[in-house]
Amino acid sequence: VRQLMKQRRPPGFPPGPSPIPVIGNIMSLATEPHVFLKKQSEIHGQIFSLDLGGILTVVLTGYDCIRECLYNQGDVFADRPSLPLFQKMTKMGGLLNCKYGKGWIEHRKLACNSFRYFGSGQRQFERKISEECMFFVDAIDEHKGKPFNPKHLVTNAVSNITNLIIFGQRFTYDDRNFQHMIEIFSENVELAVSGWALLYNAFPCIEYVPFGKHQKLFRNAAEVYDFLLEVINGFSQGRVPHAPRHYVDAYLDELEQNKGEPGSSFSQENLIYSVGELIIAGTETTTNTLRWAMLYMTLYPDIQERVHREIDSVIENGRVPTLEDKQKMPYVEAVLHEILRFCNIVPLGIFRATSQEAKVNGYTIPKGTMVITNLYSVHMDEKYWTDPGVFSPQRFLDSNGNFVKREAFLPFSMGKRCCLGEQLARMEMFLFFTTLLQRFHLQFPPGTVPTVTPKLGMTLQPQPYSICAVRRQQKS
Ligand code: HEM
Question: Which ligand 1 atom is the nearest neighbour of the CA of 424?
Answer without folding.
Answer: 26
